[in-house]
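Subject: FAD/NAD(P)-binding domain-containing protein structure
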Amino acid sequence: MGSMGEPEVPYTEVILVGAGFASFTILNRLRKQKIDVKILEKGSKSGGIWYWNCYPGARVDSDAPIYQLFDKELYEDFTFTERYAGGKELRRYFDHVEKKWNLKEYIDFDKHVDGAHFNEKTHEWHVECSDGSQYRCRWFMPCIGFAARRYTPPVPGLSNFKGDTYHTAVWPQHGVNLKNKRIATIGTGASGVQVIQEIGDKAKHLTVFQRTPNFALPMNQQKLDPEEEDRKKKNGDYEKAFEDTRHTFSGFRYDFIGKNTFDDTPEEREKFYNNLFNEQGGFRFWLNTYDDMLFDQKANDQAYDFWKRQVRKRVKNPEKQELLAPEVAPHPWGTKRPSLEQRFYEVVDQDHVDIIDIGKHPIIEVTETGVRTDKGFIELDVLILATGFDSVTGSLAQLDIQSTRGGTIADHWKDRLQTSMGIAIPGFPNMFFLYGPQAPTAFSNGPSCTQFQAEFVEEAMRRVVKDGITRFEATDEAENDWVKRMNEKWDITLFPKAKSWYSGANIPGKRVEPLNWAGGMVEYTESLAKSLENNYQGWHTAKVGA
């Protein structure tokens, strides 16, 4: 009870933070168990990152039908119109989910969670929001994903610019008119590639500031035939697609092929690469290829050589060829997540588009009217920051979630990143997080990864509720073992050779270490299941009052 004159803090069995794929997946599973659930969402609508991702050209890089919630009730009367859905269609999809599942009653919008602390006597979390509202719950699940903290680089004089400045992570919901404007973009990651290919033809002049070339792959976008998709739904193709994701390294429908690069002759390799790259498209050249591509440098060189030749065919300007597909690769191919492009190389090859290597020609200063480098002054109307996020760890580390041992999540990660199976942390009982650090996150896709994590959460909660357990906390031993396995999986690959957001190297001063589980989805889900064996061998359990 609250003290005299103070309202009692409302109680919900489970509180989820974020109204995206992860929270929706868990909510639907738990409410079927008659467990009371509430979602706190910072935005005004659901969609998670797809509410915020409204910049020009925003589009998913996972193909249909797997980039959706794995639920027949939802897909039977919703069909995506394209192989790779755009931001608008994904927002339409989340509207469909809300209505179909009647989720509005479960979501409190415009609730920015600031922090939370655990009550050792009651085994409850106390959650606080920036508007002063408070909540209590037995189970606290911040499902805010890997990209909830945007990164703005320390560009000299950035605040001086009197034109329009936009960050792709917080693009205006009402849109922006960029026609006939003098524009500069900083960054050529996923959002950079998508923005550039979308606005390049509209801009009066476009300057692209690039740190590292994006080893982008052809998306091979296709319109989907509604009648054909209906046939697939009825004959079980959708269910088979969802099931296939359980048995692959990345949670996509395809996997590495079971043989190595030099098992094939040069002619066989060329034919194989061409099929993956030009005929099938998407991530197949990355994740449906030879087993040794991400482990052996000589094998990797073969993939890069093919990729380079394909890109250079599309770029006529010799200087731009070297900037976009350099003769010598700056890092092994595929050790940064490649973006999927549609017209990127044709757009940047145009005469009114310039590319500047920001490593060789850094921005000296931003003035009121433009940007200065050692190559000269560039007058601008619009500056676009496509500089991404403090990825994977930044989302959780920014919250004031208190450990029972003292300190926050950021404090727990002060000396190294450490979790138990990328889903829990010692010192934070009754707390799960999905699609975050030390899970398959960046080597998978949101719906697949969160589906399998949600299945674990559902099973864990079913067992502990049945057993009367009210406190459920990962052990230090489980955490130490996971960190050891994380490093072992990472170190045998070529990933450490790249300065990537996969390891935090995109953020100046951030410790470089593996942020994502590189052991594949199958081994990951097996590890989750094993942690519940032998009387919860990976967990400390307790009952309130005991």
